[in-house]
Amino acid sequence: MYLDFENFDVTLYEQKFSQDSYFQSVLDFLKLFLENDSFTSNTSGSTGIPKLINIDKSKAILSARLSNEFFGITNQTKFVHCLDNKYIGSKMMLIRASLAQAKVLVIKPSLDFFTSCEDQCIDFISLTPLHVQRIIHSKPQFFDNIKTCLIGASGVSSQLEKEIIGIQAKTTFFESFAMTETLSHFALRNISAKEKSFRLLKGFSISVNSNQCLQVQHDALLPEGIATNDIVNMEADGTFTFVGRLDNVINTGGIKISPEIIEQEWGLFLPFKFILAGENDTILGQKLIMILHNNQNLVKQEIIDLLQKQAIPSRLMPKAIYIADVWTQTPSHKPIRNEIFASRKLLK
User: Fold this and answer.
1) pLDDT, tens digit, for every residue of 296-307?
2) Which of 205, 240, 271 is the last residue of a domain?
3) Environment class of 172 (CB within 10 Å of its CB; exposed 0-12, middle 13-18, buried 19+)
């Protein structure tokens, strides 16, 4: 479905695409957005049970305008919209395009969506890390026709970042930093320019509390400010790097470990899916453990050998290794850690 927001009449589009349930759902959202002062969207479930939230239209418009200004989106911009319309990231793509009166090719959500638009020149696209990985492994030349790719829904791993740089595409890749309260990204990191820190969009300010957790404020969008559970390192120039979630921190013998950081580093040399967690221990308080996806034929000594080969210090060596009976993920492919942890069985 091709949408031209310079000449947009939802009734005409409905007449043409009403027989397709997904395209109709996109048109239903646009109609709701244009005619009402608020709309609803699903959360991803990455920090709790997925839920339906109500969103103020004026704040969504402000967030979209900040993004459009940063990326230079105009009525000449050509979008590809391929994300599930249930979630706020997908809805914000449509809102950005609507405000800019841009052109949008809507494709049904699929990891192989790119086969439907591989020969087209695209100015702006938003993808999950899983989409980007699939394209790099299947048809990396697809990115030669993409000007800007925004990566969201979950973090970009060190391995994926290495692969993005390695294909030397003409695309400029950005990683987004977002939360429900800001509706869309409030900070961005230019992967193509090998930036390590996130830079704030116009009008946002940040600070950290006593736990080194991020606090975000924007006079119009988030005037009251909000404290998050995201541990960050703030730089002198106002940029920041993500360390991990406070609720995931492992305190082992007085040493605090953010598992997300280690997972990123180890993901460069461990050829399997895993998470790190803390397990209660009478001496250490918590001991560091590793939990593997259960479809991998590995033995404990193989994993230890791989870690020792990288000279991993003893304080970071897993004290036990498990296999998870279930490997649950959010729709954006973030591991649901508490459910994985609960299903673990000791690896012999």
Assistant:
1) 677 888 899 999
2) 205
3) middle
